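User: 4-oxalocrotonate decarboxylase. Structure?
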Amino acid sequence: MALVKGADLEIIDYLLQAEKERKEVVKVTDKHPDLTVEDAYKLQKRLIEQKMSEGSKRVGVKLGLTSKAKQQMMGIDEAIYGYLLHDMLAFEWEPLQYETLIHPKVEPEIAFLIGEDLQGTNVTADDVLKATKYVAPALEVIDSRYLNFKFTLPDVIADNCSSSKFLLGSKWIDVKNIDLANVGMVMSKNGKIATTGTGAAVLGHPAEAIAWAVNKLGLQNEGLKKGDIVLSGALSEAIAFKSGDSIIAQFDDLGSVAMFCE
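Assistant: Predicted structure:
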């Protein structure tokens, strides 16, 4: 790594403490301006390994920055990925506790349940669809540890792509029975429409985004495992929420997923 010896552990502790103490912190790149994307993924992996050493279990992968418009806005040309852990899973019937979060936002996604191991560096969207058992509606709660949700690409990658919580709808559909690119979605907050989107907003097709992630993981000799959950990327922009807010995302042919924050 380009970081000086010991700086990686310092950064990981810095981010983990921010999450545990629910406090916004200045960007890692403010102190380490030379941090590269490659460095950041190494930090991310070590951060996840630290969480796993404390009892968390890996349950899947999440995609970020899968909107071409958002990529252009940030001056980048590819998405990002992070990991899902078992203690990030929240449930529709159990209110989310705002006091456990910093400045959360929520975004609507399509979740994939992977039915067979998938690894390589030339994986296609068709390969992803063949390996997928079911898809379902999902909400991802993102909660950047950085001040005012402002960060550079290496910052957000090191922070496991702002991961916090995710919720899955109760309806799981055979992927062969749905045209994911053309799935329409409406997300409402407190009964008022907040955002709309389609599956095509996710790199043209959610399976394309997952294929990209598998190929990136393949470069690290990693991949997806049977039983993994993959959040394929947001169908619309994220919206902020606070205590007392209710959110529901309704998807064509996929049903809905809802959350309440108290």
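The helical segments are 7-21, 28-31, 37-53, 68-74, 125-131, 153-158, 206-218. The chain has a mean pLDDT of 95.
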